[in-house]
Each structure stands twice: as C-alpha cells, then as structure tokens.
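Continuing from the previous page of notes. For each protein in this section, the sequence appears first, followed by its structure tokens. Read the first protein now.
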Amino acid sequence: MEDAIATIAAAVWTDNWNHMINFKVILLSIVIEAFPFLLMSVIVSALLNNFVSENTIRNLIPKSNILSIFIACFLGILFPLCDCGMVPIIRRLILKGVPLPAAITFMLAAPIVNPVVSAATAFAFQNNLYVVLLRLGTALAVALCTGLLLNSFAKGRQLKSPSQLHGHSHGCCQHMLTSHHPGHSLLHRSINTLRDACHEFFEMGKYLVIGAMLGSLSQIAIPREILVSMGQDSSFSIGVMMVFAFFISVCSAADAFIAASFSSSFTLGSLVAFMIFGPMIDLKNIFMLLHTFRTKFVCCLTLIVIMLCSSAAYLINHL
C-alpha cells in the first residue's frame, strides 16, 4: 500500500514538475522574443513625442473629411506610435482642427500599420508574409470603415468639456499629456525622450508579462482537446481571442508573439482578430477614451470596431 501511494505521489510530482518547466519555457520564449520589439516601439514613440509636434501630423491631413480619412490610414507608416499613447495625441489633434473621423482613423490604424509592428509580426510568425499582410490589410480595412461610418453620423468634436476633465490620465500615457515646449534644447528633449521611453517600457512590459503568463498558463492548464475544440470553432474562437485581447491590454509591438503561441490551437481569423482588436480597443484604452470622449460616442466606436473586427475575422476563417 505504501509503495502504491509513493508511486502515485512520485507520478503527480513528476507531472506537475513537467508542467512547471513547460510553463517557464513558453513564458520566457514569448517575453524574450517580444521585449526587443517592445523596446524599439517605446523608443520610437518617445522620440516622436519629443521631436515631432502634432502640427506636423495635422499639416499632413487634408481638410476634406473623406480624403483625410484615407490619408490617416497610412500615417502610421511615418509615425509608428504605440497604441497606449494615442488617445491624448488624438485629443490634441482634434482640438487643433483635425476632423474627428480622420483622428479616430489615425488612432486605430497607426499602432498596427507601422514598420515596427510589421517586423514584430513577421518575426513572431516565422516570416509568414501572409499573416503579416492579413494583419495590416484587416487593420486598414477596419480603420477606414470606422472612419467612414463616423463621418456619416458623428458630428462635432465629441470631446468632453473642460469641466468634465479632471486633469489626469490613466496608465502609461500620463506623461504624454504634457506637450514639450518647442524651444527646449536638444539635451532637454533627449533627457525627456529617455525618461518617457523608460516609463513606457516598464509600464507596457508589465502588461506583456501578464499577457504572456495568461497565454502560457492557458496552454498548460487547459487540456489540449478542450483548447483545440474552442480554437477550431470558426465563430467561438474569434470571441474568445477578442475578449482575451481586451483584458490583457498588450502593446501592439508584442501581441503577435502571444498570438503566435496559440497558432497551433486557434483559427487564423481569431489570431488576426486578437492582433487587430487589442491595439484598437482594450481595457486601458477604454478608460482613456471614456476620460476624453463622451460616453455615448465611446460606446458607438467600440461597437463598430467589435462588429468590423469579428466580421473580418469570420471572413478570414472561411477563405
């Protein structure tokens, strides 16, 4: 009897130990691969924040609403900003006269349609160009359609009045609400850049580690059969990955590595939905949007993005 109990205990211990090792391997592989791209993203974002004014972006956007929406889709190529810093920038652009639909289109597209995120996605999916093009193309389509829909019914700035703003922000973008004076010296701007990049790196690194932990844990704790049955359903898998993306709030430069860890279990459409919906609408961005824009507008915007992302992902699953 004692020998049987000892054998069972040894088997359970060995099994748990193997699970722990697998968890650490998956977690470290995601984090180590993603950190260089996260670092690159926050450095570029900090440089743009300190050396490029909103006037530069505003001058590139035409006055025509329709044309400005199309141009805004591609500005991310020139201004590869992280999604965590977009809301305060968009608010300033709208106050300076940029049309609301164009500003929102820029906010949705820029964190995804940029060289850093494209490189990260290619690296995460082992240079699978098809996945990269799907992500970029879907992001452009969702951002463009959202801008055109907003242009048809959203009138005015939709910003909260000054009395409704309490002079604070949420998350890693609080430092970006303060515009840097154009007269500051190169040394001062360089110091600000280093400070902003460090602040944003550690703030977003926290979300990356949490997301990687949840992703690793789900693959270890959930039986393979259940994970595959959820992930291979063409509709249910999309909803699961979009909810996952919303709550873990991972930076757009690192989310591809988490998505790639599910590539053997989930449909391609659900992985694309994860990489599109998260940078556009996630938990941290919702708080900043609600702080900046009217609640009704934020609800409409969120609903539009959910519908467009899920529809695009469903089409991808049935290609």
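Done with the first. The second protein uses the same format. Note its length before scrolling.
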Amino acid sequence: MTLETVLLAVGPSDADRSDQLAEAVLEVAKPADATVVLAHVFTDTEYDEVLDRLEFDRQVDEIDPDAVAGRHSTIHDLQAILDEHGVDYDVRGGVGEHGPTIVDLASSAGADRVVVGGRRRSPTGKAVFGSTAQEVLLSAPCPVTFVRHE
C-alpha cells in the first residue's frame, strides 16, 4: 500500500509533545513523500474557549474550524518542523468528540495512515473516561500509529 496522505491528529493536551508527534509522522510520511494533514480537534467547549482566547469576533468573523486550527500554537510548531523537512501539509480543524471527529477527518481526507498521541491509562481510567486513541484505533478507516507520551 502506498502512503499518500497521513493524518496527524492533535488536541489541546498535545502542546508539550509536538516534537515527539512530528518525529513519528516524519518516520512514515517523509520516505513516502506523503502529504500530512495536521488535524486539530476541539470539543465544543474547547472550541468556544479558543475562539475567545484568539479574539474572534463571532458577530463579524466567518469562523472556519480550519482557520482556527491554523492559528493554534501546536499546529504552528508542527508546521515549522514539517517545513524544515520539506514535507507538504494541509491544516484541518474539527469540532466534536475527539475520537469520532478524528475518524471523520481521516475518512474525509482519504488518509492512508493516522498518527495519534495518547497517554498510558489504567483499564479503569479507560472504562470511566473513554479513550480517544482507543476509539481511533478501533474505528479509523486505515492503519493507526499510536505515539505514547513519554
């Protein structure tokens, strides 16, 4: 299978590990000369908070999740790394529950691989709080690379 599109899914908790996520996506995308889709997913509450923090005027501005994602610092950090390595990318934003929204973005982008980060959690923690990475691993339309937080 040829890799043409790799979706790197990030969220609000990934700011402290953009280097680690970039390294993982470069390992699969660069040798294949694949395009990376930098996808920042926000819950409805996170999205509202980001709109306020970035001072979008909801009365005047046409607010596009892709534009909001493109203004997020985690995406800026990843763009700089991909630029440095000459890897093509697009930026996409999504609003909704993290897991299903990542799966939807992967489908709509025609992703051949998804790269997603996560943290080690106890079985009880997964059962009580759910797991974005687990949802993506089980539901994505393509293979998934899981990057565990160090």
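What the second structure shows: The mean pLDDT is 88. The longest helix spans residues 18-32. We return to this in next week's lecture.
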